[in-house]
Write a structure and sequence with these properties.
The chain has 7 helices and no strands. It has helices spanning 10-13, 16-31, 46-60, 72-76, 83-99, 104-115, 118-122. Helix 5 (83-99) packs antiparallel against helix 6. It is globular and about 35 Å long. The chain starts with 9 loop residues before the first helix and ends in a 7-residue tail after the last helix. Residues 1-6 have low confidence and may be disordered.
Length: 129
């Protein structure tokens, strides 16, 4: 399956932009309780971060909202974020999706979309980063 196979309507199946907002709120509740991830957000405006994450996800899932935040690589560079951190973050996102009733197909589609941004967040695989 490629990222574009059978993913039309993913955003709508997740409850549209309002569903994503609820997932983001739930996810950050989980992330901030995670001892490995919480320190990354200690001096972060969570209100702003939630807004940027909401915009990013709605945009990444084919929605009508454009991401207005900084480029992902520049925001995350030098923060020590590893592939393990990225996986933990995605796991919390998936748990939040499941809590809202997302099915296996939608979980897979969301992970495929998110995985396309891993290198920009972790700096892995980046030449000259």
């Amino acid at each position: 399956m490629t990222p574009n196979d059978d993913d039309d309507g993913l955003l709508e199946r997740l409850g549209g932009p309002q569903g994503i907002l609820a997932i983001v709120d739930d996810m950050y509740g989980r992330v901030l309780k995670d001892n490995e991830l919480a320190p990354f957000f200690a001096s972060t405006s969570m209100e702003r971060l939630r807004q940027m994450q909401y915009e990013f996800l709605v945009s990444a899932f084919g929605g009508p909202i454009a991401y207005s935040g900084a480029e992902l690589a520049s925001v995350h560079r030098g923060r020590g974020i590893t592939g393990n951190h990225f996986a933990r973050f995605c796991s919390h996102f998936i748990d939040a999706m499941e809590a809202r009733g997302a099915d296996a197909r939608d979980l897979d589609q969301a992970l495929i979309r998110l995985s396309m941004f891993k290198d920009r967040v972790t700096g892995e695989g980046s030449i000259g980063a």
